[in-house]
Amino acid sequence: MKLFGLDRNIYVAGFVSLLMDISSEMIYPLLPMFLSSVLGVNKSLIGLIEGIAESTASVLKAFSGWLSDRLGRRKGLMMAGYAISALSRPIIALAAGWHAVLAGRFVDRAGKGVRTAPRDAIIAESTYSASFGKAFGFHRGMDTVGAVIGPALAFFLLSASNNNFREIFWISLAPAVLAVLMIFTVREKKEKFVKYAGRPKLSTGRFDWRFKFFVVIVALFSLGNSSDAFLILRTQQVGIPTALVPAVYLVYNSVYSLSSMPAGIAADRFGRRRIMLLGFILFAVIYFAFGRWADRATIWIIFGFYGLFMGLTDGVQKAYLAEIIPPDMKATAFGIYNTAAGLALLPASLIGGWLWDHVSPAATFYYGAVMAAMSAVLFIVFIVVVPKSGTDTK
C-alpha cells in the first residue's frame, strides 16, 4: 500500500533523516560560535575545519555508492553511515581544542559520506521516474523538518542552560541513536538491482555526457558555496545576539522544509532543469544580498530566501540525476555527484575564510555570487545543448 503514491521506504528514509537532522542542527548553528568564542579560533581556521570535514569525507560518497551497487545492498551501508555520524556527538561534546572539533566534524561527515548514496538509491528504487521529484522533495522536506526542530531545541536549550554548548551537544546524541534504530524497518528492493558482471570499476565510463556536464556545473557552483558556518558568523557580525542565532537559522530551515516537496512536484510538472536554473540565479542574488544589504533587520529575510533556494535545488538535482543514469549504477552516480560537490567545498571554504579575514566579510559572499552566476550561465548552455529525450523533456 502506498500513501499519497509514495512507497513506505520513502517515509522511513524521511523520518530517519528528520531524526538525524534534529541531532545535527542542534549542533551545527552553535559550532561556529563555540569555535570562535569558546575555543578562540579565527575565521580562516573555521573555514579550514569545515572544508576538510566536508571535502575529505566526500570521497567516501563515491566509494560507498560503488560498493552498494557492487554488493547489491543498500540498507547495511545506510545504517553504518548513520551510526558513524552518531559517534561524532560525544567527540565534539568533549572537545578541548579545535583539533578535536575537526575530528568530530570529520567523523560526522564521514558517516554522511557512507550513507548518502545508498540512501538516495533506495529512494530512487522505491518510486517511479514520473514521481522522482515528489519522492526526493518529500525526503528533503522531512530532512529539513528535523532541521527546523533542531535549531528550535538549540534556541530553547541555549537559554535554559545559560549558553552551555557542551550540554546541548550531549543531548543531540539521543535523536541520532533513534535514527539508527529506525533503519531496521527499511525493506531492500532487491528485484531492482542488477549486479555488476565481473570486477566493477569506480569510473564515469558508463555515464553519458549529460551526467558528466551536469556534475561539472555542480562542482563549479560548489566552488563558491562556502560553508554555511560563514552565514552563521555573518549573523553575529551584523549584531544578532548569540541566543537568537539558532532562531535565524530556524527561519532558513522552515522555508527549506516547506518549499522542498512543492518544488519537487513543480519540477515533475514543469521541468527539473528550469527549477534548478531558477535556484542557481536565486543563490547569486542571495549571496550578493548577504554581502551588500545584510543587517539586523534584513538578515532574517535573506535567510528565508536562502531556504527557498535549498528547497528549489537540493531534491530536484537528485531527481534529475535519477532519470539520466543507468538503473544498475544509481548509487555510484549519486556518490560521484556528491563527491564532486563535496570536494569543491574545501577550496570554497578556504577562499571564503581568507576573504573574510584579509579583505572583508562581504567579499566572501560576493565571491559566492559570482561563482553562482557563472554556473547559471553554463547551465543555460546545458539546457540549450542537451537533447530532449525520455523523461528529460524540459
Summarize it:
This protein is mainly alpha-helical.
Secondary structure elements and pairings:
Elements: H1 8-27, H2 31-38, H3 43-71, H4 75-93, H5 98-125, H6 132-160, H7 165-171, H8 173-182, H9 209-222, H10 229-237, H11 245-270, H12 272-292, H13 298-324, H14 330-343, H15 345-358, H16 361-385
Mean pLDDT comes to 86
- State the secondary-structure class: mainly alpha
Strand content: under 5%
Count of separate structural domains: 1
Shape: globular
CATH class: Mainly Alpha
Distance between the termini: 31 Å
- Count every helix, treating DSSP H or I runs of 4 or more residues as helices: 16
Supply the CATH superfamily name.
MFS general substrate transporter like domains
Give the quaternary arrangement of the chains: single chain
Largest sheet: none
Q: CATH architecture, please?
A: Up-down Bundle
Q: Rg to the nearest angstrom?
A: 20 Å
CATH topological fold name: Growth Hormone, Chain: A
Give the tags.
394 residues; mainly alpha; Growth Hormone, Chain: A; globular
Could you explain how this protein is built, in words?
By secondary structure, the chain is an all-alpha fold. It has a single domain (8-183, 206-385), classed as MFS general substrate transporter like domains (Growth Hormone, Chain: A), CATH 1.20.1250. The chain is built from 16 helices and no strands. Helix 1 (8-27) packs antiparallel against helix 8 and helix 6 (132-160) packs antiparallel against helix 13. It starts with 7 loop residues before the first helix and ends in a 9-residue tail after the last helix.
